[in-house]
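can u do me a favor
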C-alpha cells in the first residue's frame, strides 16, 4: 500500500533513481533506491522507511528532524533496526534525542548510530563503498560519495587458465586490482570550499548539491560564511563539472520556482551543457 505523506520529486539517470525533496530550512531527504541508501532525514516519506541504511550530513533540523520517525516506523513495521551514519560529534546528541522520543512515545527506538570522520569508508555489500568527505558548514558536516568497486585480473595473470587462477586464490595471492568509479556524490549543505577541497564531487556521474541562493543582490561573502552556495559559485566553476547530471537543490524559501528558473537561466544560460537540473 502506497502512502504519500511527503512531497518528493524523482529523476532517473543511467539506471539510478534519485528521489527526494530539499528546501532550505524546511526539509531535506534523498533516496537512491537501487543502492538501498538514504541521505539525510529532514523528512521521512513513508515509502523511504524500507531502506535500512541512512547517511546524515549534519544535524541541522531540516536534515535530521525525522530521524525518530524513521527509526520508529521500521520498528512498528517489524523491520530490522536501521544503521545510521552521521558526523561523529553528533552521535551522542542524536542518541539522546531518540531516547527522549522513546520516553514520550513509550516505544523503543532500536537502531545503530555510527559516527564518521572525514575519510572514513563504509562498504555497502560487495560492490559499493561510501566515503565521508569534509564539507564546510556552520556545524560539523560531511558529504558522501558512493563508489562502484570493480575488480580486474592483474595483467601478469591474463595468460593463466582457470585452475591456475583458482590455485593462486586458494594460496591467498592477490590476483586482482580494484578500481573505483564515483557514481553518486552528495555534498549536503556547504560553502564552495566543500566542492573545491574534494575534486571527486566534480567527477561523480551524479552530483547532488546545494544552490541555496540565486538572486544577484544576495552577498556571496555572507552566503559562504553561513556555509551555503550561490548560483554564481556554479558559474565560476562550470568548466570543472565533469558530471553527467548535476542536481541543484536546497533552494531558499525566499524564491518561488519562477524566480529560481529566471535567475539561474540568466547566470547559466546553457545549464552547464544541459546537465544541470533544478530540484524545484
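np, heres the sequence
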Amino acid at each position: 500500500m502506497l502512502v504519500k505523506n511527503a512531497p518528493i520529486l524523482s529523476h532517473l539517470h543511467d539506471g539510478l533513481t534519485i528521489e527526494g525533496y530539499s528546501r532550505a530550512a524546511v526539509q531535506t531527504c534523498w533516496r537512491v533506491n537501487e543502492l538501498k541508501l538514504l541521505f539525510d532525514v529532514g523528512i521521512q516519506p513513508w515509502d523511504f522507511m524500507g531502506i535500512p541504511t541512512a547517511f546524515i550530513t549534519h544535524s541541522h533540523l531540516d536534515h535530521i528532524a525525522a530521524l525518530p520517525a524513521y527509526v520508529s516506523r521500521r520498528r512498528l513495521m517489524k523491520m530490522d533496526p536501521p544503521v545510521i551514519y552521521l558526523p561523529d560529534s553528533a552521535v551522542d546528541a542524536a542518541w539522546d534525542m531518540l531516547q527522549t522520543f522513546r520516553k514520550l512515545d513509550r516505544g523503543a527506538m532500536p537502531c545503530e548510530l555510527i559516527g564518521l570522520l572525514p575519510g572514513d569508508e563504509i562498504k555497502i555489500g560487495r560492490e559499493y563503498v561510501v566515503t565521508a568527505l569534509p564539507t564546510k558548514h556552520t556545524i560539523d558536516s560531511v558529504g558522501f560519495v558512493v563508489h562502484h568497486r570493480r575488480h580486474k585480473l592483474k595483467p601478469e595473470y591474463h595468460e593463466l587458465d582457470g585452475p591456475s587462477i583458482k590455485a593462486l586464490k586458494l594460496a591467498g595471492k592477490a590476483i586482482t586490482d580494484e578500481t573505483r568509479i564515483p557514481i553518486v556524490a552528495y555534498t549536503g549543505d556547504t560553502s564552495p570550499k566543500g566542492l573545491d577541497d574534494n575534486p571527486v564531487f566534480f567527477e561523480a556521474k551524479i552530483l547532488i548539491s546545494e544552490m541555496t541562493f540565486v538572486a544577484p543582490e544576495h552577498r556571496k561573502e555572507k552566503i559562504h560564511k553561513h556555509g551555503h552556495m550561490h548560483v554564481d559559485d556554479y558559474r565560476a566553476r562550470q568548466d570543472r563539472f565533469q558530471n553527467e547530471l548535476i542536481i541543484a537543490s536546497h533552494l531558499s524559501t525566499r524564491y518561488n520556482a519562477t524566480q529560481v528558473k529566471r535567475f539561474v537561466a540568466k547566470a547559466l544560460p546553457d545549464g552547464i551543457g544541459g546537465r544541470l537540473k533544478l530540484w524545484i
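The radius of gyration is 21 Å. hope that helps!!
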